[in-house]
DNA sequence: CATCGAATTGAACTAAATTCAGGTCAGGAA
DNA sequence: TTCCTGACCTGAATTTAGTTCAATTCGATG
């Protein structure tokens, strides 16, 4: 669900609705291609009302990205927390990565397509805050994958090599899927899970 | 070099200069962040003159992407043509992928960051032509990698599995590097070549 | 009831890409 | 040489979308 962020929202807040509409449009039609005013229409408010919730269209995009990163990170931690064997944890993390709702698929797509936005500072205050937040999540996710690989090396499950580099490669494999995956396409999410899990085990294993 | 495209260019054409300036700015500062007029300044012409060479800023971007895809494809074919063993061809293709000039690094970055542009049709004529061109190159590159993997399976060098899926994974690994690689960063291009070549051999091998 | 802040609005503003309506310039034909 | 043509270029005007502004409505709370 999109709700339950830290900040308490008033009962007649349209924030969640805006995010949902934005995710659908940004994900389906692309960020630059969607007119900000169209989101307002879909939610049933005037364009100006959007600025009560987000400082800008870009701020909304960054929020969507940050939310999805936070969710992914949390999910990773949940499913790997109580799995001591690194190879099992690796498979669990990958399974979790593809255990997503249709809307989360769109969010991952948006995330992949606009990751470059996180590289350069934003002029406006709240955008920059959200960007930093997102960057932090990215770093934490990379750290989690690295720690997982290191754990496997320490336990002897994986041969000793550059853990961070390997983690980067594995993570890239996992997320690159969202660039081409389409529901109803040649491969199902289950197919993808199997494909990537096997590949990851091979990359990191003996 | 950026020149030697099919179309003969007049001697005082600034097209190559525009492309070079655009690659630098789009690659360094990002496409949306660079002002089209700034490119004109850098080349030493008025903003309107840009439209003599490109129908739009997006058309220029699509041209850059298409050019880089064409170059990559050609290079792949060159280095794998006379290598019969699939595993050697795989390593050659990966080596070639990272044997690039600084400007080509930027072009690959631009390509990765805007691949999603190829998914949806363009309203304007020449943009759409360039998009189709780029999509064709993408398809051909995917076909080349797939054929390479299939060749390996047929020869027994790689175990039989879903060749297209595996090729997609390998190609994704190869190109995902451009999202994070920076000259002077933790890993050199030689490091990257080794890292990805090893990973690819593991993914596709026994 | 009074009030406060969240939520909303129409009208005006702005930045940047693009179009328009015409110039200039170099090189080949007459 | 002069003329002509098409490549190349320009300043001014237009367009489009995102954004700001000043002012208003609504609902809960004291």
Write a brief structural summary.
The structure is a homodimer of 206-residue chains. With 206 residues, chain A is mainly α.
Q: Classify the oligomer.
A: homodimer
End-to-end Cα distance of chain A = 39 Å
Average pLDDT metric of chain A: 95
Number of domains of chain A: 1
**The CATH topology of chain A is what?**
Tetracycline Repressor, domain 2
Beta-strand residue fraction of chain A:
under 5%
The CATH class of chain A turns out to be Mainly Alpha
Biggest sheet architecture of chain A: none
> Roughly what percent helix of chain A?
55-70%
Structural class of chain A: mainly alpha
CATH architecture label of chain A:
Orthogonal Bundle
**Secondary-structure element order of chain A, N to C:** HHHHHHHHH
Largest interface: A-B, 30 and 30 residues
The CATH homologous superfamily of chain A is termed Tetracycline Repressor, domain 2
Shape of chain A: elongated
Helix run count of chain A: 9
Number of strands of chain A: 0
* Low-pLDDT stretches of chain A: 1-6
Radius of gyration of chain A: 18 Å
Protein name (chains A, B): TetR family transcriptional regulator
Organism (chains A, B): Nocardioides astragali
Keywords (chains A, B): DNA-binding, Transcription, Transcription regulation
DNA-binding region (chains A, B): 35-54
């Amino acid at each position: 669900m999109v709700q339950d962020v830290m900040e308490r929202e008033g009962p007649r807040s349209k924030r969640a609705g805006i995010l949902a509409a934005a995710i659908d449009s940004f994900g389906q039609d692309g960020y630059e291609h969607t007119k900000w005013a169209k989101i307002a229409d879909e939610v049933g408010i005037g364009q100006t009302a959007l600025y009560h919730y987000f400082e800008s269209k870009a701020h909304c995009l960054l929020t969507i990205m940050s939310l999805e990163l936070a969710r992914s990170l949390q999910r990773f931690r949940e499913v790997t927390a109580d799995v001591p064997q690194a190879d099992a944890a690796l498979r669990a993390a990958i399974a979790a990565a593809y255990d997503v709702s249709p809307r989360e698929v769109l969010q991952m797509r948006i995330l992949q397509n606009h990751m470059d936005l996180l590289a350069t500072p934003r002029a406006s205050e709240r955008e920059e805050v959200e960007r930093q937040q997102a960057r932090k999540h990215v770093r934490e996710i990379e750290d989690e994958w690295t720690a997982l690989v290191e754990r496997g090396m320490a336990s002897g499950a994986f041969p000793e090599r550059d853990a961070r580099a390997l983690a980067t490669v594995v993570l890239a494999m996992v997320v690159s899927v969202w660039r081409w995956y389409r529901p109803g396409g040649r491969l199902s999410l289950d197919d993808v899970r199997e494909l990537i899990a096997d590949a990851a085990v091979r990359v990191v294993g003996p």
